Amino acid sequence: MTAVPNSVLGKAVALLNAYEPGDDSLSLAELHRRTGIPKTTLHRLLGELGEWKVLERTRRGYRLGMRMFEWGQLVSVQRSLCDAAAPFLACLSEATRATVNLAVPEGPDVVYIQKINALDGPRKPPRVGGRLPMHCTALGKAILAHGLPGRLDALVSGGLVGQTSHTVRDLVALRAEIERVRACGFAEEREEAVVGVACVAAPVRNSSGVVVGAISVAGDPAKIDAGRVWPTLRATALGLSRNVDRRGPGW
């Protein structure tokens, strides 16, 4: 838990940031534990945010409201990328029969902004809107290898957190892996982010050549073969990269 902000706006943002993937309703006591905001102040903020439909009262506490969803749909940068990606991800899903993901970088993480689950496989995290450390995902490795030069240095300065027992936590090993990705063009990981899931990923660029995200094919480690899916994944990434800027400004 970080220090409690001094301003009312800061406290409201801290309150909203208390919600994590998988949360539904949180009680007043749980919100107090996660934020450190005094309960009297929390109660007042919850009431005001409820009036604006940013939060909703439930039997078990408070959940994010419909206004938050509506605001999310107005984020033009992610929206334009999602719109451009939709037909490409649908074709990739049909061709591979696997789960496909689209993610963008956000600090040391990747945030999943689009996902099509395989019809014949179990649904695995993260969900749309979820995030994972960049260094343990194929999506993140594709971005690190082909994106801004200083991103890897900035990431490792904060330490390499392990998601599973397979996560690469050694800096030398990670740098070697990133060099391999640069050489072959694609990134892959096996159960480094989520146990029981392997991924192969490729970067997505805008018309200036800047990496703005990545797409991946994911599934059972026994069924995901990088050599088999790479030609289709590469063609999809190239096709999407050529269409990103046609859907709106910002990329």
TrEMBL record:
<dbReference type="Pfam" id="PF09339">
    <property type="entry name" value="HTH_IclR"/>
</dbReference>
<feature type="domain" description="HTH iclR-type">
    <location>
        <begin position="6"/>
        <end position="66"/>
    </location>
</feature>
<dbReference type="GO" id="GO:0003677">
    <property type="term" value="F:DNA binding"/>
</dbReference>
<dbReference type="InterPro" id="IPR036388">
    <property type="entry name" value="WH-like_DNA-bd_sf"/>
</dbReference>
<dbReference type="InterPro" id="IPR036390">
    <property type="entry name" value="WH_DNA-bd_sf"/>
</dbReference>
<dbReference type="InterPro" id="IPR050707">
    <property type="entry name" value="HTH_MetabolicPath_Reg"/>
</dbReference>
<dbReference type="GO" id="GO:0003700">
    <property type="term" value="F:DNA-binding transcription factor activity"/>
</dbReference>
<feature type="domain" description="IclR-ED">
    <location>
        <begin position="67"/>
        <end position="246"/>
    </location>
</feature>
<keyword id="KW-0804">Transcription</keyword>
<dbReference type="Pfam" id="PF01614">
    <property type="entry name" value="IclR_C"/>
</dbReference>
<dbReference type="GO" id="GO:0045892">
    <property type="term" value="P:negative regulation of DNA-templated transcription"/>
</dbReference>
<dbReference type="InterPro" id="IPR014757">
    <property type="entry name" value="Tscrpt_reg_IclR_C"/>
</dbReference>
<keyword id="KW-0238">DNA-binding</keyword>
<dbReference type="InterPro" id="IPR029016">
    <property type="entry name" value="GAF-like_dom_sf"/>
</dbReference>
<protein>
    <submittedName>
        <fullName>DNA-binding IclR family transcriptional regulator</fullName>
    </submittedName>
</protein>
<keyword id="KW-0805">Transcription regulation</keyword>
<dbReference type="InterPro" id="IPR005471">
    <property type="entry name" value="Tscrpt_reg_IclR_N"/>
</dbReference>
